[in-house]
Every structure is written in structure tokens, then in C-alpha cells.
């Protein structure tokens, strides 16, 4: 894998983390009607913190999986197009 592909993948993973956080926050608010627990002062209920953690981790894993798969497909197509251009 060349440096460009690694940088594209790194950027895609970073962006997917940001998107997953936003999706988890909005999902939690829509489901519970409350703001997501951030537990900065230790006052949030442990059950809520654990439930939000599980929700966030699941969403992050799904988003990252689909982003990496899409990125790999695009990089493969770009590589194939470059090889075809060189052969012509």
C-alpha cells in the first residue's frame, strides 16, 4: 500500500469517528429524550453510561467498517484505472 492510500485511509477513519460520534449523540437524544451522558462529574447513572458506550461503540464499528470498505474499493478502482492508462 502506498503512502497516498495510507493517508486517504487515515483521513477516512478520522472522519468516520467524527461522524459516528454525531450519529450516536443524536440517536441517544432521539431514543431517550436526554442529552448523552458525558459523566464528567460522576453523577450520571452507570447504566446510562454503559448503554451509551455500547451504542457508541456499535455505531463507530459499523461506520468505520463501511468507510474503510468504500475507501478500499475507490483506491482499487483508481489503481486499476492508472494501470489501464499506462498500458494505453
Written description of the protein model:
With 88 residues, the protein is mainly α. It has two helices and no strands. Helix 1 (3-32) runs antiparallel to helix 2. The protein is rod-shaped, with a radius of gyration of 19 Å.
Low-pLDDT ranges: none
- Alpha plus pi helix count: 2
Structural class: mainly alpha
* Count of DSSP strands: 0
Instruction: Write down the Rg.
Output: 19 Å
DSSP strand content: under 5%
What do the pLDDT scores average to?
Answer: 88
N→C terminal distance: 24 Å
Note the main sheet: none
Order of helices and strands: HH
Name the helicity range: over 70%
What key phrases describe this protein's structure?
88 residues; rod-shaped; single chain; mainly alpha
List the helices and strands and how they pair.
Elements: H1 3-32, H2 46-87
Helix pairs in contact: 1-2
Amino acid at each position: 500500500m502506498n503512502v497516498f492510500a495510507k493517508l486517504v485511509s487515515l483521513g477516512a477513519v478520522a472522519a468516520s469517528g467524527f461522524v459516528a460520534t454525531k450519529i450516536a449523540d443524536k440517536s441517544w437524544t432521539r431514543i431517550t429524550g436526554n442529552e448523552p451522558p458525558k459523566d464528567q462529574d460522576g453523577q450520571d447513572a452507570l447504566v446510562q453510561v454503559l448503554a451509551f458506550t455500547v451504542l457508541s461503540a456499535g455505531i463507530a464499528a459499523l461506520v468505520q467498517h463501511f468507510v474503510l470498505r468504500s475507501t478500499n474499493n475507490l483506491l482499487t478502482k483508481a489503481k486499476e484505472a492508472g494501470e489501464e492508462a499506462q498500458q494505453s
